[in-house]
Write a structure and sequence with these properties.
Blueprint (H helix, E strand, L loop, with lengths): L2 H18 L22 E6 L4 E5 L5 E2 L4 H13 L20 H5 L10 H14 L3 H13 L8 H10 L1 H12 L7 H12 L2 E2 L1 H7 L1 H4 L14 H14 L5 H7 L4 E3 L4 E6 L3 E6 L10 H14 L5
Antiparallel strand pairs: 1-2, 1-7, 3-4, 5-6, 6-7
Helix pairs in contact: 1-13, 2-4, 2-11, 4-7, 4-8, 6-8, 7-8
Subunit structure: Homotetramer.
Protein name: Glutaminase
GO biological process, one term: L-glutamine catabolic process
């Protein structure tokens, strides 16, 4: 049995089992635009480094990737500024929810890691200080990774997030008061909300993240996006911080570096092998896709391939 056939058989079997089981969880009510999505959507796509692909369910339907975009903005900033970014954001697991303010005062405005909201807001500020038009440069970067010039922000989702993003406003203004935001908070937040609003399919999301499974190099054109050591470090941050205060549980049960978003998406990578994306909108109590986590746990158990 070849690689593609083996993955297709495994994914189909686990998909059907998870689909027929309970779909527990809730769609987040604090982003009104996300309430328009059917809670029963479920899609999976895998891209292997050998060029094999497979998808099932709603894998070609676009959804809001939300916090998954934080890995891409981090990759962009890290490539430009190198290790100097760690002067403004740490690399430790937070142990708190994604929008928590608790640690900022104790840490003098330095967010615990770049994948919680506070940390991603600081990364946005870093990019805004560097580029004349950070929004345009960032979407160009995502299009480059996807090899797809049609990818764009969702103005509707960005506006919906801004309308009710009180906690993110609080985070940004508080970090500004502690001296770790250089630009005007509203400008930083506009970029942050746009970044989170990007819509992708599971198919394109999995393909985008193959560069992190492939030592920082894209599959199309063999373009080096990140040096080896930067790639390794971003993967480590995804492993320890990619699922907020459920990151330890995800590492324990799944064993892959990855990132979730409140749009119901999860992307995970196995270095040297593949990137896989799952979408199911109902979230568990930690804000991660219920079916997504369940599928990926079954997938690594059955394939017996993980980083551990």
């Amino acid at each position: 049995m070849n690689e593609q056939t083996a993955y297709a058989k495994t994914i189909t079997g686990i998909y059907n089992k998870v689909y027929q089981g309970k779909n527990i969880g809730k769609i987040p009510t604090y982003i009104p635009e996300l309430l328009n999505v059917s809670p029963d959507k479920f899609g999976i796509a895998i891209h292997t480094l050998s060029g094999k692909t497979f998808g099932i369910g709603d894998y070609q339907e676009k959804f809001s990737i939300q916090s998954i975009a934080k890995v891409l903005s981090l990759s962009m900033a890290y490539d430009i500024f190198g290790d100097s970014i760690w002067e403004r954001v740490s690399v430790e697991p937070s142990g708190t929810s994604f929008n928590s303010l608790l640690q900022l005062e104790a840490n003098n405005g330095i967010p615990r890691n770049p994948l919680i909201n506070a940390g991603a807001i600081v990364i946005c500020d870093i990019l805004l200080s560097h580029f004349k038009n950070a929004e345009e440069e960032f979407i160009k970067f995502v299009r480059q990774l996807a090899n797809d010039p049609t990818i764009n922000y969702s103005e509707e989702i960005a506006a919906s997030e801004k309308e009710v993003g009180y906690r993110n406003f609080a985070l940004c203004y508080y970090i500004k008061s502690l001296g770790n935001i250089e630009n005007e908070p509203e400008r930083v937040l506009d970029f942050y909300f746009k970044l989170c609003s990007i819509e992708l399919t599971c198919e394109s999301l999995a393909y985008i993240f193959t560069f992190l499974a492939n030592d920082g190099i894209t599959l199309h054109g063999q373009q080096r996006i990140l040096p080896h050591v930067y790639t390794k470090r971003i993967n480590a941050i995804m492993q320890t911080c990619g699922f907020y205060d459920e990151s330890g549980e995800f590492a324990f049960r799944v064993g892959l570096p990855g990132k979730s978003g409140v749009g119901g998406g999860i992307v995970a990578i196995m270095p040297g092998h593949y990137a896989i994306a799952v979408w199911s909108p109902r979230l568990n109590e930690k804000g991660n896709s219920y079916r997504g986590v369940k599928f990926l746990e079954g997938f690594t158990m059955q394939t017996q391939i993980s980083v551990f």
